[in-house]
Amino acid sequence: MASSMISTTIVSRSTLAQANMVAPFTGLKSIVAFPSTHKNVDITSIASNGGRVSCMKREQLIKEVECLLHQKLIPCFEFELEGTINGRYWTMWKLQMFGCTDAVEVMNELDEAIKAYPNDFFRIIEFDNIRQVQCISFIAYKPPGY
Question: Which residue range or ranges hold the Ribulose bisphosphate carboxylase small subunit domain (predicted)?
Fold first, then answer.
């Protein structure tokens, strides 16, 4: 009887020790564990902000901005200093245009920004001041040669 009590005591101690142990991180799972039957090597199917960016014409931009202003969104401009569009870090041009109700005013501000930085990409972003979020952004200007 004593021998059976000792063995159960040892078993319960080892189980308690195992319960407190955490397995070390062994890295990401191997691709062998998750086999793939189809590998897509066509990079044109990957969603991207780069590549060939087609900007709207001025009349289309005015209509888009009018629609966004009608929805009570606040416009703002951002530009990318490097001249390449990678979508990571954009610099804000001035501040948001609080109280702006006219699309022509937004376009005049865009023209002023382009005069200051003619070799950079510009995008228009729109904020919702109620939800405190950015709702939309789109390329408004791309430099010559792109």
Answer: 49-143
